Amino acid sequence: MTTPNVAPIPELYVSYDSAAKLKLEAAELFSIDLTPRQLCDLELLMNGGFYPLKGFLSEADYNGVVENMRLADGSLWPMPITLDVSEELAAKVEPGQDVALRDQEGVILAIMSISDKWEPNKALEAEKVFGADDVAHPAVNYLHNTAGKIYLGGPITGIQQPIHYDFRARRDTPNELRAYFRKMGWRKIVAFQTRNPLHRAHQELTFRAAKDAQANLLIHPVVGMTKAGDIDHFTRVRCYEAVLDKYPAATTHMSLLNLAMRMAGPREAVWHGLIRRNHGCTHIIVGRDHAGPGKNSAGEDFYGPYEAQELFRAHQSEIGCEMVDFKQMVYVQERAQYEPADEIEEGVTVLNISGTELRRRLVEGLEIPEWFSFPEVVTELRKTKPPRAQQGFTVFLTGLSGSGKSTIANALMVKLMEMGGRPVTLLDGDVVRKHLSSELGFSKEHRDINIKRIGYVASEITKNGGIAICAPIAPYTATRRAVREMIEAYGAFVETYVATTLEECEKRDRKGLYKLAREGKIKEFTGISDPYEEPQKPELRIDTQGTDVDFCAQQVILKLEQMGLIGSER
Q1: Reaction catalysed (predicted)?
Q2: Which of 256, 218, 250 shows the shortest CA–CA distance to 238?
Q3: H or E, element range at 427
């Protein structure tokens, strides 16, 4: 008899013949192009990873999930899986209508029958699902500043899987994994959820967890969307592959999960459990502060260290996947081995390297000891993170019109070019307007688009080892944060607030813009009729009043030197 965890699970795909017919019909339908996050969600809806969901949540299901982690029929489900769209798009569709869902290349993946269209209370969603309506949380920031205003719900008819060109042999649907477990005769499988490279402590932990549960091990890393600043999945998968041979091949398997994480802590842990159950696992390792996003606006952790484990334990039987406690493993120097932190007697020397310390050592090209990580993993990480003085970076000067941003940017560019070593590009606000954004006006929406274009170009320059200097006004915190996230995926982002007062900027008003704004002849002018949101924690703050340009540019140079971005190479 086949045990439930390896029996086939329902999918939302139609047969091959029906798919060919539906593709032709779908070509005539109104289309929605999905965002990267929606594509991850759609894939797991169609392949059974989000079972029992049959599509994007209806309004009744959404309300139940937000309020008490239950669908309208009472089934446990902790995470809103919604199709968010703009108001303009929402105005073109109605419940009762079928729409084609396409990937970013325009390939039709599914048909959705719209059952519901509503405007959600996002502040309530943030509060209930993520524990606080605080934009320091990446998913809350996404909810308010990226996601569309209107949600569409309705069942999905799957036509074809999204196409992945990378690591194809490592990607399995829930039914492919269940078939593998059946074939191998595995009945107890413990899943290890990770979005970080595996170091020796993780290897010890996973090995011990599988042994304690007398189960086989599935290393199941997330390669969809994780948290801004995380190591890219290409590097991580190469790191996983480098350590796979440290595990017994007969009892360990690795598969990649195309999940868009929400970093929702306790609710995310329950969600991960349900997803792993759908993939055929009987156990999952739940970590300390599992899927936590870091600090909130007050500088405290969003979730308590064991909140995720407590919520999981409360729903364990319903999840259908048992929790294995994540034991913190530390290296005992005297015995030259890893041991659980809570089993170590006093007086022994415990060695540990935090994630922050590891990043510092990588950035500065310092030694990473073999007791901490495998040399093969360190080699892969070093390929992605050369010493900081060889990495690309972006200096982002923000401030009011007339504050001196462009003048400082020009002086800085010359100083950096004089040093040599890396190409330097100046992305000045006016120059970008002329070459990249000539069709844009000055509404909030258009200004945001302009800043994001600057951010995109700067991120490409940074990724390729160059220096980008940007000098737009960039008055809005959320937009500057979006640009920071774009750039920090590849290198350092040095936000420099040119904090010249409004009075001083008006005095310097060479172009006469402030005068026209005061007379009402220029609408939505930053500082007069439109707000400038001051950066709260810039890397550098410069006041140009009573100082010359050379001194201001030198302050930036000193900051770059302090951050290890320029200067002597090790």
Answers
A1: adenosine 5'-phosphosulfate + ATP = 3'-phosphoadenylyl sulfate + ADP + H(+); sulfate + ATP + H(+) = adenosine 5'-phosphosulfate + diphosphate
A2: 256
A3: strand 424-428
CB 265 within 8 A of CB 227: no
Q: Is 223 exposed, middle or buried (0-12, 13-18, 19+ CB in 10 A)?
A: buried
Q: Is 74 annotated as a binding-site member? A: no
Q: Which domains does the chain have, with CATH numbers?
A: 16-158 (3.10.400.10), 168-330 (3.40.50.620), 388-563 (3.40.50.300)
Pairing type for strands 55-56 and 98-102 reads unpaired
Say yes or no to pLDDT of 286 above 70: yes
Residue type, 143: L
Q: Is the pLDDT of residue 489 over 50?
A: yes
Cβ contacts of 392 within 8 Å, gap of 6 or more: 422, 461, 462, 463, 464, 465, 466, 467, 468, 490, 491
- To the nearest 10°, report the CA torsion of 212, 215, 216, 217: -50
Task: Judge whether 46 and 11 are in contact, CB under 8 Å.
Answer: yes
| Residues 165, 567: Cα–Cα separation, whole Å | 39
Phi and psi of 108, rounded to 5°?
-80, 120
pTM for the complete prediction?
0.78
Judge whether residue 168 has pLDDT over 70. yes
Distance CA 472, CA 480 (A): 10
Maximum Cα–Cα distance across the chain: 84
Any binding-site annotation on 402?
Answer: yes
Is residue 401 annotated as involved in ligand binding? yes
At residue 229, the pLDDT reads 67
What pLDDT, on the 0 to 100 scale, is given for residue 288? 82
Q: For residue 400, say whether it is annotated as part of any ligand binding site.
A: yes
569 band by pLDDT with thresholds 50, 70 and 90: very low
Q: Between 233-243 and 375-384, two packed helices, what is the crossing angle to 10 degrees?
A: 160
Task: Say how far apart CA 77 and CA 207 lie, in whole Å.
Answer: 30
Catalytic residue list? 194-196
* DSSP secondary structure, 121-175, as one string: -HHHHHHHHHSS--TTSHHHHHHHHTS-SEEEEEEEEE--PPP--SSGGGB--HH
Tell me the C-alpha distance between 270 and 256, whole Å. 19
**From CA 385, how far away is CA 489, in angstroms rounded?**
11
376 backbone dihedrals φ, ψ, rounded to 5°: -65, -35
Is 404 annotated as ligand-binding?
Answer: yes
Q: Which two tokens stand for residue 334?
A: 């005297």
Range list of H helices, 420-548: 429-435, 444-463, 477-488, 502-507, 513-518
- Alpha-carbon gap, residue 559 to 554, rounded angstroms: 9
d(CA 152, CA 230): 30
pLDDT over 90 (residue 545): no
| Partner residues linked to 323 by β-bridges | 284
SS (H, E, C) 337-394: EEEEHHHCCCCCCEECCCHHHHHHHHHCCCCCCCCCCCHHHHHHHHHHCCCHHHCCEE
Range 538-552 average pLDDT:
88
